[in-house]
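For the sake of transparency, this paper describes our internal protein records without simplification. Because each token names a local backbone shape, the row as a whole describes the fold. One such record is reproduced below, unchanged from the form in which we store it.
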Amino acid sequence: MGWAALKQKKWFKIVTNMYVLVLTLFVIWMTFFDTNSLLIHLELKKEIDKLEQQKTFLKNEIEKDRKALEKLDDDDELEKFAREQYYMKKDNEEIFLIEHKDSIERKP
């Protein structure tokens, strides 16, 4: 098959069309090489999705903390929290910590 026969093929005429060549180069450039390429957009989209999930999680945590702080405004709740979390006691009290066998960590 010679050069003249190849030029007569319909697909060769389409592929060697100047507009098709420029469009193909443009698409390849924008997909892979440009600073705003499609690949970078996909990476940024994944990062945005991850940050949105983190934002939702942190908003939920803030709401939980806000409810806990509102609960601690009451003196009885504050005293209960201090006793449970920090083992605080009144001056005339004794505290007994009861541990069950299944709650004690054993060293091998």
